[in-house]
Amino acid sequence: MIEVQTLISHTLCPYVQRAAIVLSEKSIPFDRIYIDLANKPDWFQKASPLGKVPLLKTEEGHYLFESAPIVEYLDETQPGKLHPEGPVERARHRAYVEFASQILNGIGSLYNAKHEQDFEAAKEALRAKFCHLEDQIDLRGPFFAGGSFSLVDAAFAPVFRYFDVLDDFVDLKVLDGLKKTGKWRRHLAERPSVMAAVAGTYQEDLKAFLRRRDSWLSRLLN
Ligand SMILES: N[C@@H](CCC(=O)N[C@@H](CS)C(=O)NCC(=O)O)C(=O)O
């Protein structure tokens, strides 16, 4: 029997979403196993040397860890390239995938900030990163690099998903006036692979997670 690939997941993890989006973009059937990160099973600890999701169990039973190598593995082994051909453009795309990770760290600083001053500083740092990003987005759209979906899109869709939830509660102004970013964000939100990357309970689950942070943002959500 041919095994399908398995994505070892957590319901809220943006890095897991990257892999789920790429699997869907490439129409690869896959199973998901959800891990309680507060209570990691032994098999997971053994398979994941950094103790993190995502993990991808390949059809041959190999465990791959870290979202960037996982999505590159999928891109190299399955038809429909999501990385550009040229080495310079490819390096630039890899850099913007890392940029998305740094923005995710910034979102973490925002929702963990205990005091207003740290919260405001995290907001400003995020705003500066998005202002830089705005200038990097291809004018033609609808994706980061123009007409075709890339791994950079898979990395940023989960970033924007945070703002879709936060916008209901707080006027962060982090993305205000960034026209290309706004268009790109709206387009990604409607992409079937992006919509399918999380469960229907994502919004409520994220809100509950943010409320439990006991942070400045938690108070704004309550
Ligand atoms: N650099 C990693 C980051 C993955 C990551 O931070 N995963 C988080 C969940 S979103 C995790 O598993 N954390 C382990 C823990 O909370 O114990 C990647 O790109 O895959």
Question: Can you give me a brief rundown of this structure?
Answer:
The chain has 222 residues and is of the alpha+beta class.
Q: Can you tell me about this structure?
A:
There is one protein chain. The protein starts with a strand and ends with a helix. It is α+β, with helices and mostly antiparallel strands. The radius of gyration is 18 Å and the shape is globular. Strands 2-1-3-4 form a four-stranded mixed β-sheet, covered by helices on one side. It has two domains: 73 residues, Glutaredoxin (3-Layer(aba) Sandwich); 135 residues, Glutathione S-transferase Yfyf (Class Pi), Chain A, domain 2 (Up-down Bundle). The chain has ten helices and four strands. The protein binds glutathione. Glutathione (GSH) binds next to helix 3.
SSE topology:
Elements: E1 5-9, H1 14-25, E2 30-34, H2 42-47, E3 55-57, E4 63-65, H3 67-77, H4 87-112, H5 116-136, H6 151-166, H7 179-189, H8 192-195, H9 202-211, H10 216-221
Parallel strand pairs: 1-2
Antiparallel strand pairs: 1-3, 3-4
